From TrEMBL:
<dbReference type="GO" id="GO:0003723">
    <property type="term" value="F:RNA binding"/>
</dbReference>
<dbReference type="InterPro" id="IPR038247">
    <property type="entry name" value="Jag_N_dom_sf"/>
</dbReference>
<comment type="function">
    <text>A probable RNA chaperone. Forms a complex with KhpA which binds to cellular RNA and controls its expression. Plays a role in peptidoglycan (PG) homeostasis and cell length regulation.</text>
</comment>
<comment type="similarity">
    <text>Belongs to the KhpB RNA-binding protein family.</text>
</comment>
<protein>
    <recommendedName>
        <fullName>RNA-binding protein KhpB</fullName>
    </recommendedName>
</protein>
<keyword id="KW-0694">RNA-binding</keyword>
<dbReference type="InterPro" id="IPR015946">
    <property type="entry name" value="KH_dom-like_a/b"/>
</dbReference>
<dbReference type="Pfam" id="PF14804">
    <property type="entry name" value="Jag_N"/>
</dbReference>
<feature type="domain" description="R3H">
    <location>
        <begin position="175"/>
        <end position="241"/>
    </location>
</feature>
<dbReference type="GO" id="GO:0008360">
    <property type="term" value="P:regulation of cell shape"/>
</dbReference>
<keyword id="KW-0133">Cell shape</keyword>
<comment type="subunit">
    <text>Forms a complex with KhpA.</text>
</comment>
<dbReference type="InterPro" id="IPR038008">
    <property type="entry name" value="Jag_KH"/>
</dbReference>
<dbReference type="InterPro" id="IPR036867">
    <property type="entry name" value="R3H_dom_sf"/>
</dbReference>
<dbReference type="InterPro" id="IPR039247">
    <property type="entry name" value="KhpB"/>
</dbReference>
<keyword id="KW-0961">Cell wall biogenesis/degradation</keyword>
<dbReference type="InterPro" id="IPR001374">
    <property type="entry name" value="R3H_dom"/>
</dbReference>
């Protein structure tokens, strides 16, 4: 049985965060409250709520995903008719619609009201989520959002020969995160040049590591490498003459 810890400002937010990681709904997990949230004083000493979610023994993960994919009757767009892969290519428009339906159904089962805006680009499909109090879906450094994005890509491209990358975003979090990472990269590169010693960054996913590498690829006297194994793979900024 799978188990995961979720955190959030409230117990409900922590539970929702864990559900996204597991790709399940609340009826399919056992919930253990590990720590109640604390507000602290003037922002100091505050603590997030922490819960442990354990998948119930009777839950079949594959069946759950399929059931959630079928529950899309309330979406304005009509569900796609099943077509043989041999008959046509899996288009970006079809992938975008299928991904949108999947995300909507997952969040609907979690009791989250959301509007989903889709944008199709040459190299990816972007689904932007809009709504109130969606911060718990982002998680620390986007970890919860990345987990939901992974499930969306896995489900959307399942059984298809033509695969499309779907990026999920919430209130422009991705662009803000990219800007933060670029500023961090330039600041640390300057420090490496001054101290002539390498700096090891915290573990990041492949997309965020790529942002660091691209930001510093033309910087003088520094070199970047990715080291370690997932999920602890990280960027190292080296000094070189």
């Amino acid at each position: 049985m799978r188990s995961v810890e979720g955190t959030g400002k409230t117990i409900d937010d922590a539970i929702r965060s864990g559900l996204v990681h597991l790709g399940l709904i609340q009826d399919e997990v056992d919930i253990e409250i590990l720590e109640e949230p604390k507000s602290g004083f003037l922002g100091f000493g505050s603590k997030l709520a922490r819960v442990r979610l354990t998948e119930k023994a009777s839950v079949n993960v594959q069946t759950t995903v399929c059931d959630e994919m079928e529950d899309v009757s309330t979406i304005a767009e009509e569900p796609l008719e099943e077509k043989s892969v041999k008959e046509h290519l899996f288009t970006q428009e079809e992938a975008a619609t299928k991904a949108k339906q999947f995300v909507y159904s997952i969040l609907k089962n979690m009791g989250v009201s959301v509007m989903i805006e889709k944008m199709i680009k040459s190299d990816k499909i972007i689904l932007s989520l809009h709504g109130q109090n969606l911060g718990f879906l982002i998680g620390k450094h986007g970890q919860t959002l990345d987990a939901l994005q992974y499930l969306t890509n896995l489900t959307t491209n399942q059984g298809q020969t033509e695969r499309h990358f779907i990026m999920l975003d919430i209130e422009n979090y991705r662009s803000k995160r990219e800007d933060t990472l670029r500023k961090l990269a330039f600041r640390l590169a300057k420090k490496v040049r001054l101290e002539k010693e390498k700096i090891v960054l915290e573990p990041m996913n492949g997309y965020e590591r790529k942002i660091i590498h691209l930001a510093l690829q033309h910087e003088m006297n520094v070199r970047t490498d990715s080291e370690g194994q997932e999920p602890y793979r990280h960027v190292v900024i080296h000094y070189e003459l």
